[in-house]
Amino acid sequence: MPIxxxxxxICCMMAKKFRLDKLLxxxxxxxxxxxxxxxxxxxxxxxxxxxxxxxxxxxxNPKEVSASYGLMQLMYTTAAMLGFTGDGxxxxxxxINIELGAKLLRRNLxxxxxxxxxxxxxxxxxxxxxxxxxxxNPDKAGDLRMQxxxxxxxxxxxxxxxxxxxxx
Length: 168
Hints:
By secondary structure, the chain is mostly helical. The chain contains eight helices and three strands. It has a three-stranded antiparallel sheet. A hairpin with a 4-residue loop joins strand 2 (67-69) and strand 3 (74-75). Helix 1 (5-18) crosses helix 2 and helix 1 (5-18) packs parallel to helix 6. The protein is globular.
């Protein structure tokens, strides 16, 4: 899908705010939602495993709190962990969605300052954690659980790089 100019401008703003690469944010959007602002994925297994019996979430609508939203396919619970307090529909807003996605990626990178893994790039770990969480990522052998996802984002990065000009 071609890059949406409005999304590119938002990515530029958020890249500056969170000290990230705009092209990386655009690549993640391509992988996560193919640029569809209204992308939505309900994850019933996530509800059953993590939220159904959790007092913080058990009284909430499973289709709202156990779902991924928007361009960067943010899980509602992840958005809440990052300070989001609205209803799920607000996560379709490109500015809110990209800002929270960038905030998560920056948080992942900042948490890696103390990790001593000579075999992986910190950005690869941060990207893998964006998709698969921090638990055992990397694993004890130093491998990423979400290496296929990282490879998809890197491939999308090189495609996006050909289409998008630098930030103004």
